[in-house]
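Schema walk-through. Below, the input block comes first and the output block second. Nothing else is stored per chain. Lengths vary across the set, and this one has 110 residues.
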Amino acid sequence: MASKTKEKKLTSRSSQRKLARDAEKREAERKYHEEVKPKILSENPKCERCHTAPSGEVHHKKGRLGKEEGIPLLIYEPYLVALCSPCHRHIESNRKESYENGWLIKRLSR
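--- output ---
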Protein backbone atom coordinates (compact mmCIF):
# COMPACT_ATOMS: atom_id res chain seq x y z
CA MET A 1 0.00 0.00 0.00
CA ALA A 2 2.84 2.38 0.83
CA SER A 3 4.37 1.94 -2.62
CA LYS A 4 1.11 2.99 -4.29
CA THR A 5 0.97 6.12 -2.15
CA LYS A 6 4.59 6.91 -3.00
CA GLU A 7 3.87 6.28 -6.68
CA LYS A 8 0.85 8.60 -6.51
CA LYS A 9 2.99 11.34 -4.92
CA LEU A 10 5.64 10.96 -7.63
CA THR A 11 2.99 11.06 -10.34
CA SER A 12 1.42 14.06 -8.69
CA ARG A 13 4.77 15.87 -8.49
CA SER A 14 5.63 15.09 -12.10
CA SER A 15 2.13 16.17 -13.15
CA GLN A 16 2.58 19.44 -11.28
CA ARG A 17 5.95 20.04 -12.96
CA LYS A 18 4.42 19.32 -16.37
CA LEU A 19 1.54 21.69 -15.67
CA ALA A 20 4.00 24.40 -14.61
CA ARG A 21 6.11 23.87 -17.78
CA ASP A 22 2.98 23.96 -19.93
CA ALA A 23 1.81 27.18 -18.27
CA GLU A 24 5.25 28.75 -18.79
CA LYS A 25 5.21 27.71 -22.45
CA ARG A 26 1.72 29.15 -22.98
CA GLU A 27 2.78 32.42 -21.34
CA ALA A 28 5.88 32.64 -23.55
CA GLU A 29 3.74 31.98 -26.67
CA ARG A 30 1.27 34.67 -25.60
CA LYS A 31 4.05 37.17 -24.89
CA TYR A 32 5.75 36.40 -28.22
CA HIS A 33 2.61 36.97 -30.33
CA GLU A 34 1.21 39.92 -28.37
CA GLU A 35 4.35 41.80 -27.35
CA VAL A 36 7.72 40.64 -28.66
CA LYS A 37 7.00 39.95 -32.34
CA PRO A 38 5.14 43.26 -32.90
CA LYS A 39 7.94 45.12 -31.10
CA ILE A 40 10.73 43.50 -33.17
CA LEU A 41 8.88 44.19 -36.43
CA SER A 42 8.02 47.81 -35.53
CA GLU A 43 11.61 48.55 -34.44
CA ASN A 44 12.93 47.03 -37.68
CA PRO A 45 10.55 47.88 -40.52
CA LYS A 46 13.15 46.83 -43.12
CA CYS A 47 14.64 43.36 -43.41
CA GLU A 48 17.83 43.13 -41.36
CA ARG A 49 19.51 40.97 -44.03
CA CYS A 50 18.79 42.67 -47.38
CA HIS A 51 17.91 46.11 -45.91
CA THR A 52 15.45 46.80 -48.74
CA ALA A 53 12.28 44.72 -48.37
CA PRO A 54 9.80 45.31 -45.57
CA SER A 55 10.24 42.90 -42.67
CA GLY A 56 7.30 40.65 -41.93
CA GLU A 57 8.77 37.66 -40.15
CA VAL A 58 10.80 37.16 -36.99
CA HIS A 59 13.71 34.73 -37.22
CA HIS A 60 14.97 32.92 -34.12
CA LYS A 61 18.74 32.62 -34.53
CA LYS A 62 19.07 29.93 -31.86
CA GLY A 63 15.73 28.20 -32.38
CA ARG A 64 12.52 28.47 -30.41
CA LEU A 65 13.02 25.77 -27.80
CA GLY A 66 15.12 26.05 -24.67
CA LYS A 67 16.22 28.95 -22.49
CA GLU A 68 18.98 31.53 -22.33
CA GLU A 69 19.66 33.24 -19.01
CA GLY A 70 16.42 31.71 -17.71
CA ILE A 71 14.35 33.28 -20.51
CA PRO A 72 12.61 31.10 -23.12
CA LEU A 73 14.40 31.38 -26.48
CA LEU A 74 11.03 32.06 -28.07
CA ILE A 75 11.06 35.53 -26.50
CA TYR A 76 14.80 36.12 -25.94
CA GLU A 77 15.20 39.32 -27.95
CA PRO A 78 19.00 39.26 -28.54
CA TYR A 79 18.46 36.21 -30.79
CA LEU A 80 15.48 37.62 -32.73
CA VAL A 81 15.84 39.24 -36.15
CA ALA A 82 13.25 40.92 -38.39
CA LEU A 83 13.40 39.57 -41.95
CA CYS A 84 11.48 39.58 -45.20
CA SER A 85 10.10 36.23 -46.29
CA PRO A 86 12.68 35.55 -49.07
CA CYS A 87 15.61 36.25 -46.72
CA HIS A 88 14.09 34.07 -44.01
CA ARG A 89 13.71 31.21 -46.50
CA HIS A 90 17.30 31.73 -47.68
CA ILE A 91 18.64 31.52 -44.12
CA GLU A 92 16.68 28.36 -43.35
CA SER A 93 17.58 26.74 -46.69
CA ASN A 94 21.30 27.55 -46.53
CA ARG A 95 22.12 26.54 -42.99
CA LYS A 96 25.90 26.16 -43.35
CA GLU A 97 26.23 29.65 -44.82
CA SER A 98 23.83 31.01 -42.21
CA TYR A 99 25.88 29.59 -39.32
CA GLU A 100 29.04 31.06 -40.85
CA ASN A 101 27.39 34.49 -41.22
CA GLY A 102 25.78 34.53 -37.76
CA TRP A 103 22.17 34.20 -38.89
CA LEU A 104 21.98 30.90 -37.02
CA ILE A 105 23.63 30.05 -33.70
CA LYS A 106 24.44 26.48 -32.72
CA ARG A 107 23.16 25.19 -29.43
CA LEU A 108 25.57 23.37 -27.19
CA SER A 109 24.70 19.73 -26.77
CA ARG A 110 23.54 18.78 -23.31
